[in-house]
Amino acid sequence: MSDPAAIPATAAIPATAAIPATASPTVEFISLSHLNPSTELNPVSTRGIDLAYFRTYVRSLEEAGFDYTLLPYGSNSADSFVVASAVGQLTERLRPIVALRPNTAFPLVAAQQLATLDQLTEGRAVVHLISGGSDVEQARQGDYLPKDRRYARTAEFIDLLRRAWTETAPFSHDGEFYRFDEFGPGFAPYGATIPISIGGQSDAAFEVGGAKADIFSFWGEPLADLRGEIDRVNALADAAGRAERPRIWVTFRPIIARTDELAWRKAYEYVTRIERTYQAGGARRFVGPGGPQNVGSQRALDFAARGEVYDRALWTRTAAATGGLGASTALVGSPETVAAAILDYVDQGASLVSIRGYDTLADAVDYGRYILPLVRQEIAHREATGRRGTLQEQHPGALAPGFDAAVAAGAH
């Protein structure tokens, strides 16, 4: 049973009014590319690539209007660089985001690989650096650096990526983690540079991301909590003397249906199946015996323990079902309600919104049909009029008086 008290007292349905000063004037959409039909709802025992499915999925993302796709990385997954190159050849517009762990590639080699991808895709490459949130997973590929030093390595890695792309004469380096002599000039990207994203919610993640990243990524959190995190990133960017603050990327797993009631019913059905998958060992967890090490997962589990429903549509029970593994908080409701909820996050400053579903291919198609156009229509309205439209006011979702998710779903 959801607890209406979990919805913050400060939450309110925004009436048609001036656009908040914190709002991003633009928004772009990200999804994650899937290599085969296996999902948390219907796990398939495979470690391979279903090429026909992958082609269909990637082309569906482009047809749906997504701007980017994330190519994830894990010790037991396909190589993200190779997959990103395939995405670049299968699409004309979609931008591949290569997830990369600094422990797996020397920075000058990674710079060369990324610049090659960027040239092959005519400037579409992006890199998302994963410092590593689990000692267990890092050790699987021979990385035993303590967690508190992994972000320091990432900081040095970022500096070397940018120098490799921009230095016009050979240079040497003798740092804490990397050393070389007379490298360069390196292979140049298609344009001036390649955007660098990082994520994480440890103090070290904020320090590095605020000072150096082009993009800082978060998992979906309650609005007030995320606002504080964005303020922290911005303050660190300002303290570093940066001319531009990092773009904010936030990730959700929307569960939509024709009406809010049908969506909540679907959500409860989904979470039962997700719980069954994890209990049966059908999904991998990179955690040690004491639970997740990374702060993002710890925060997700804490929010779930405090309440199931936050703000207009944020649902945390899916995060609890996975043990806080990865991006797992949902937005639940009709397409209109979920689009309004996404705009709530845009109002907090998010300019990159990642949405991927639990029924992966079907959800990607549905998001393109029913959610992306609504958000883009509102952004266009704001640009033309300087004011909010009516979508957020007319679709309150969980902010409606007397709302209870379990009652809405008929789960008495």
UniProtKB/TrEMBL annotation:
Domain Luciferase-like: 45-351
InterPro entries linked: Luciferase-like_dom, Luciferase-like_sf, SsuD_RutA_monooxygenase
Xref: CDD domains: Alkanesulfonate_monoxygenase
Keyword Cell membrane: no
SUPFAM superfamilies associated with the record: Bacterial luciferase-like (SSF51679)
Taxon lineage: Bacteria, Bacillati, Actinomycetota, Actinomycetes, Frankiales
Keyword annotations of the record: Flavoprotein, FMN, Monooxygenase, Oxidoreductase
Taxonomy, superkingdom: Bacteria
A Pfam family the protein falls into: Bac_luciferase
Assigned EC number: 1.14.14.5
Protein name: Flavin-dependent oxidoreductase, methylene-tetrahydromethanopterin reductase
Molecular function as annotated in GO: alkanesulfonate monooxygenase activity
